């Protein structure tokens, strides 16, 4: 995990320093304990290791108050450090997204739609329904799963570290399956100009 994530951080620091500044500091013991309590089980070691290095890629995000008094997050473009505009979730965001997915399954009677052991880790910039999760069941390590709107998560990579390695490879090669990575004024941008 440390090697894969280190490659990403190094690439961002050298090539896209504005995007590197979107990385949050390491998760604290309190952050990890809050996530454990929200999940109802231990945070997988691989995920905790990642969060202990950077607790999300949302350091530049802000909030906005709506007329009804509700406060909503406003994502900064530099948070999108992964292909197709995906961000790294921090402990609080993981807990919120996990609760949303579990509630969706329970309220709609969709048994197996989002298993209790599936922990979201990477999500699309808009906060919709696309991203990657870790299967914390421990039955075959901690594979990374990919999910999309209306679909049950499917295997994407044998591990979170392998998934992050593939993202690091994409940064270093300049492309993720034909989806180009480019830097504009110190910020990483994925996709066509």
From TrEMBL:
Stored InterPro entries: Knr4/Smi1-like_dom, KNR4/SMI1_regulator
**Domain of life (superkingdom):** Bacteria
One Pfam annotation reads: SMI1_KNR4
Start and end of every Knr4/Smi1-like domain? 26-173
Cellular compartments per GO CC: mating projection tip
The record's listing under PANTHER family reads: CELL WALL ASSEMBLY REGULATOR SMI1
Name by which UniProt lists this protein = Molybdenum cofactor biosysnthesis protein MoeA
């Amino acid at each position: 995990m440390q090697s894969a994530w280190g490659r990403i951080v190094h690439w961002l620091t050298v090539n896209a320093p504005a995007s590197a500044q979107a990385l949050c500091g390491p998760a604290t013991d309190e952050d990890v304990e809050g996530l454990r309590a929200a999940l109802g089980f231990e945070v997988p070691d691989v995920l905790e290791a990642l969060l202990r290095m950077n607790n999300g890629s949302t350091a530049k995000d802000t909030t906005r108050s709506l007329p009804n008094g509700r406060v909503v997050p406003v994502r900064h473009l530099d948070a999108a450090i992964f292909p197709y505009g995906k961000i790294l979730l921090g402990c609080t965001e993981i807990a919120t997204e996990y609760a949303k997915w579990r509630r969706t399954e329970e309220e709609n009677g969709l048994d197996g739609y989002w298993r209790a052991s599936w922990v979201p880790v990477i999500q699309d910039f808009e906060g919709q329904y696309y991203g990657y999760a870790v299967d914390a069941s421990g039955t075959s390590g901690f594979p990374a799963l990919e999910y999309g709107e209306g679909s049950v998560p499917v295997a994407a990579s044998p591990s979170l570290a392998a998934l992050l390695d593939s993202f690091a490879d994409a940064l270093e090669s300049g492309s993720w399956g034909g989806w180009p990575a480019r830097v504009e004024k110190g910020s990483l941008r994925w996709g066509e100009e």
